[in-house]
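Dissemination and training. As part of the outreach component of the grant, students in the summer workshop were shown how a complex can be specified as a set of sequence lines and then modelled as a single object. The example used during the hands-on session is reproduced here so that future cohorts can follow it. Participants entered these lines:
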Amino acid sequence: MTLSGKFSSTALGLIAALSMSSAATSEELTIATVNNGDMIRMQGLTEDFTEKTGHTVEWVTLEENVLRQRVTTDISTKGGAFDLMTIGMYETPIWAKNGWLVPLDDLSDEYNADDILPAMANGLSYDGTLYAAPFYGESSMIMYRTDLMEKAGLTMPEAPTWDFIKEAAIAMTDRDNEINGICLRGKAGWGEGGAFITAMSNSFGARWFDENWKPQFDTQPWADTLNFYVDLMNEAGPPGYATNGFNENLSLFQQGKCGMWIDATVAASFVTNPNDSTVADKVGFALAPDNGLGKRSNWLWAWALAIPAGTEKEAAAKEFIEWATGTSYIELVAEKEGWANVPPGARTSLYENPNYQSVPFAKMTLDSILSADPNNPTVDPVPYVGIQFAAIPEFAGIATEVSQEFSAVYAGQQTVEEALEKAQALTTDAMEAAGY
Amino acid sequence: MARTVTTNRKLINTLIAWTIGLLIFFPILWTILTSFKTEAQAISDPPVFLFFDWTLENYAVVQERSNYMRFLWNSIIIAGGSTVLGLIIAVPAAWSMAFVPSKRTKDILLWMLSTKMLPAVGVLYPIYLIFIQLGILDTRAGLVIVLMLINLPIIVWMLYTYFKEIPGEILEAARMDGASLKDEILYVLTPMAVPGIASTLLLNFILAWNEAFWTLNLTAAKAAPLTAFIASYSSPEGLFYAKLSAASTMAIAPILVLGWFSQKQLVRGLTFGAVK
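and obtained this result:
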């Protein structure tokens, strides 16, 4: 046999062995996820992963709150129902601390973990180790109607203040034509109105806890935040704003009924999509407002993939993470659905790509993400990590109750003072009971 | 003396009944209508009622994205299995309480009902751990057992009410004719209680079909029924109301059809004992 013949047969043997081993280790992965646009797109492209690795995927898609309850029950009891979970920045450090997640410190060189945006990597790490890989990331920013702003005789600065936002909102409001100057979340729930008001309060100098974990709702910055919000919304917000969340405001904005909307950066692709939005070609973007205190009112969030500790399919799960959150997946989505639809906010290289730079909201999304610092979220120092949340297990329950009190103010059922008094009392009780 | 009912009064009563009926049915009707709209029409303000471009696109998307038949089959097995298993246990239990009561029968009945008063989430962790230990997480068998246990108090209570209406003398006569306990329950009591058993069966099938706490929390990919199918179309970040409505319509369609054909038995079952 010649040398080339030997080489060919060796290569053939290797290929056969590799394909056999691949067939022998083919796994079926069960992945829990949320029903957001980017996740749905990923489900539609799963065949590409199966073709490349031989592994198949069973999707369990749930509404966000149901998903949280479901995966928390499973991971805390080591149920093993899922091989991969879609979790956020709130859960990741808490679960990693409890030893519930597999560290992602051995991903391949090809995956290039250093390309993950530093803000995202920090928020999804615990003790310097990455525990969840960001599938898409978001901050919050202002989306505004350029035509209405022009009509009001104003120019939106790239980094406006709350005073300017109030002035513009009042000027843009046209009750006769059902145009509200501003639409903001008011719906109860720590991830809905609670997230917005917490991020907003940071720019007013408020904080949830002082350095000794003492609740701070009895301080002036919280009263200033709530009073400003209520005045602004009563003057320029839509009727019934106390029950408006992301979807309700998205609906209002797409129908041309909001002059400005401050919310998640992922909304930009919805409001600029001419198939769904009546104002697609009249939308401008700006950084979330501040008050000149050094902190803006934008948040930071990522939907990320994590592997529960104890899964028997860890290797296959890591392969999925590398596929779904790697650069080749972004190229796959761009090829099939266009650059405007690739999962945003996770990788630095995406924002260096000239194709993506031409997407109208790309720069503002990146600027918003870069201006958010979950390790130093407030004007005064705090003992917690997180901008629109405090990454402690007790926060979700407490913040849900606090946001209910705030929503009652928005609905006119109680005063700002009463709500803050109740928030202070219930947070103090819960923190004392938790041993802080 | 029988009360005379005037035509006017009949007309008013009919109108009131129809109005209440339509009000109760309206959310379902709205869901069905929304399922035929585009996403933009689904959120339009003012809302469009009947005059819109009807489309089947949402159904096509839902069919393409989800394995509806697998969810449907799981729902049928789980709801049917838990109801039948519940009846097998409840018929003898209700018989003994109705025909050979002890001093504690009333207490037992109340105690059984009291288990329905605990919020389900209060026992989520213990049940989840038991399921892990038994290896029945995300299995239809596990859900059949848990839904049977949840609905058992209602099944026993309903059957007990029906059985109490049957004269004990008939069973005594059967016994005197030499019928064994099994024969007495199977060949004398059951045929007489068929309408009651049928309405109990139907009501519990519907309750199990609609159960959305345990079916969401104890399943993942394999045993998930139609409740999980609906939940997978609810989105906090994105307007997919038309698709969610299509998924909901597909999930409730089988039970709506069943309810329509069995409404006589259902009404009889629900009003049994109200008029004597």
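The CA atoms of residues 254 and 268 of chain A lie 11 Å apart. Students were then asked to discuss how this feature might be tested experimentally.
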